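Example 3.
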Amino acid sequence: MDTHMSFDTSRPAPAAAPRVNAYNPTYDPLVSPPGQGQDYAPTYWVATAGTPPEDDGPIQGDVDADVVIVGSGFTGLSAALTLARDFGVRALVLEANRAVWGCTSRNGGQGQNASGRLYRSQWIARWGMDTAKRLDAEIREGFEYWKSLVAQVDCDAQPGGHLYTAHRQKKMAFLANEAQVMRDVFGYDARMLSQAELRERYVHDHEAVGAMHEPDGVGVHPLKLAYGYLRQARALGVRVHPSSPVLGWRRDNGVIALQTPSGVVRARRVAFATGGYTAQGVNPLLDNRIMPVLSNSMVTRVLTDAEREAAGLKSTVFITDTRTLRFYYRLLPDGRMQIGSRSALRGADAQHPRHLALLREGLARKFPSLRDVEVAYSWWGWVDVSHDMMPRVTQPDPAQPVYYAFGYGGNGVAFSAQAGKRLAQRMMGKDGAPWNLPIYDTPLPGHLFAPFRRLGQGLLYRWYHLRDELL
Ligand SMILES: Cc1cc2nc3c(=O)[nH]c(=O)nc-3n(C[C@H](O)[C@H](O)[C@H](O)COP(=O)(O)OP(=O)(O)OC[C@H]3O[C@@H](n4cnc5c(N)ncnc54)[C@H](O)[C@@H]3O)c2cc1C
């Protein structure tokens, strides 16, 4: 037996494999072990997606599999779909909680032609023109692939592009430069809108002094979309096992042995797609490689026609503003407003009312007439941010048949489709794909001061606030 890595036997394994446990709102991946069988967060999406699709129940006993995927969000399901559809491989998906429990059931549904937190002008600055153009071709192809999946699922898709609103005058020059780069270098029809045009055609955001509109962008009901992925995958023979957290792995006679509370799953190849919910100690190749960052979201009650008119809401096109700690928002198809932004640093603090108050205040600044509107849903989730702000889909150690796809930095609704597809291709040894791109040819970078990251995050939040609002 070659014991490359060993199970963390200090972690107490849950005794049984219950199907649904209470949702834990204070879950924190940096300090908590993986959950087990937790119910969904109380999101608007969960309330309106309909009955969850069938799954295959918790893993019972020891199991052998060719390919195992850990995590059943957009990424894991997209990988499973590609494996089944393009390679005839029926993967086994292990999910700690309920199917599609993580960020995939909690996000803003803003499908952008992007990935990671860097703008295209920053790609050029970091890697040069040639790489930036090849990266653009890859992300663009991924966006088209995602749209082809969206077209197959009834998920309230709202095309119309994406608006970047300048929340201060000084941000207009930044947006104008980005629009020019999008147009002149990458050939997109990105356009600047004056404040008057923005108000006339889209939205009367009282902070916005103008905006950039990019035509690529589709708002979706993320959970309906994910349930669509899940149904399609299972129809192709994929098995999805909720309430089956992976607690650790080791190499055992040439296979990867994954420890779950109810048995060992032995696989020839394994992919981790556990997003911002990656607990420390489960996969040493991932420890300290992802910064889990809490993001908040709220949805109001349905606004009346008169309220929408008074607020100047004329479009369902989705919007982000130019703050580093940005607000994202949109008018949902049923007439509610959704808005989100940053949240607590730690899970233990996630329920503090000041985080919801930050969203309410953000909404009121943008739409004063909505200051006292009733909030019908409020929730949060852990976003996977990489230490260099860009994702990775890779095999970090060529000696181990263990792969991962991570680090979308709050931009994973669309890109996770391509990431999952590339993850599957990578596991199957496919040539010809653009593996020499920076998001594919290196592992996630670590962080020198990993144990103190939250301290640094707190200081950064203060600095960003100062820069966003005052300087
Ligand atoms: C509030 C909020 C708003 C957002 N808004 C947007 C947006 O508008 N647009 C956008 O592009 N992106 C947005 N995002 C980010 C987007 O949701 C994510 O990038 C995307 O859903 C990531 O999908 P994933 O499959 O990689 O990870 P997740 O959906 O997080 O799935 C990971 C899964 O792995 C499981 N897991 C973890 N550990 C284990 C283990 N040890 N064993 C088994 N299973 C495990 C978890 O339970 C979880 O279900 C938002 C995120 C949040 C939280």
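DSSP finds eleven helices and 19 strands in the chain. The first strand starts at residue 63 and ends at 70.
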